[in-house]
Amino acid sequence: MRRLLAAIETVAAVFLLLIALLTAGNVALRDLLSVQIPDWFDGSKLLMGIALFWGIALATYHASHICVDIVWEHLGRRGRRWLDVAAGAVTLAFLAPMAWMVWVKVLGSGTQATTDLRLPLVWFTSIAAAGGVAAVVLALVRLVLDALGHATLEEHAEARDGS
Questions:
Q1: Residue-by-residue pLDDT tens, the chain, 163 positions
Q2: Which of 16, 65, 84, 119 would bridge 146 by S-S if both were Cys, CB 3.0 to 4.6 A apart?
Q3: What is the pTM of this model?
Q4: Range of the domain at 126
Q5: Which residues fall within 8 angstroms of residue 22, CB to CB, at 6 or more apart?
Q6: Cβ-count burial of 150 within 10 angstroms (0-12 exposed, 13-18 middle, 19+ buried)?
Q7: Is there a contact between 53 and 128 (Cβ–Cβ < 8 Å)?
């Protein structure tokens, strides 16, 4: 599981790095040479979509998305566990159809391409859709771990380190 999480983190990080390099490179070329990188805007949007989908997968597993814990804080251990299970089920119920519809979009994109370089959009949307599938898989893993009362890898590490 650690390898899978590390791979997903790496994919998200690489695409964020590519966005930063593309944007910085375009700004530098525009200011210094008065030229632009072809498709830099389309490329940055497509790369951002990929990074977001893979980031959603990580946030789902780590349960680090934005949440309000007003009720959770006042529950006992068992109540917290079942609230986590309910929240995980709702998250999975939203992520699964989203991933499905992203794949429908990928398969329906046909010959759509970027404006300048005519790069097929299917390359980018397929990678983003794979991130959507990773989010569904990690949401399911998280739901099963919560339902069985097992700690995640991070919770095991915190307990071991005393953090």
A1: 889 999 999 999 999 999 999 999 999 999 999 999 999 999 999 999 999 999 999 999 988 877 777 888 898 888 888 988 999 999 999 999 999 999 999 999 889 999 999 999 999 999 999 999 999 999 999 999 999 888 666 665 565 566 5
A2: 84
A3: 0.84
A4: 2-161
A5: 37, 40, 43, 44, 47
A6: exposed
A7: yes
